[in-house]
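Quick one: structure tokens for this chain, please?
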Amino acid sequence: MVDVRRVKLPGVGVLHTFVTDDGGKVGVITHRSGHSDLITFSDAGDGGADAAKVSLRLDEDEAHTLAELLGGTRITESLSALEQLPGLSIDWFTVGYDDHIAGQELGGLATTGLVALTVVAVVRGDSANPAPANDFKVFPGDTLVVAGSPEKVAKAFNFYRTGELAPKVAADAPGA
């Protein structure tokens, strides 16, 4: 029987980890927003050549598909429902080279229409920059830690990617 460790991540969701027979670790962060991060890493404490880490973000359907491919899950979905804080979501946005925010200052989110949302920190390499100022410049590879309602977080991520506050509606979409 595999020993699964469970850690509550307030405002984020739940982290489940276990150690494999070959000494590697596998983790799944189940976010309140519905997506999951699958993480694998070695337990090489020295950070040497054998240390490796891989992270893969999955939406809810992809996570269910992976669970089915691996033979199902023993952890019921109702557990993650118990961990939710109504109205609060904390999520990560990793900046890519093609993202609108790459190379720009964070700026005041309120000036873009994103009120009731906070950039809690920017992680760059091995260091965190908590409560970054509006003039903090964001670069590809940075990870923004954002807190707000799930809707505001989704809106912010769209803005960071495209520079637009709302996704474009296709001309042939219903109601367009």
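The chain has two domains: 5-82, 89-162.
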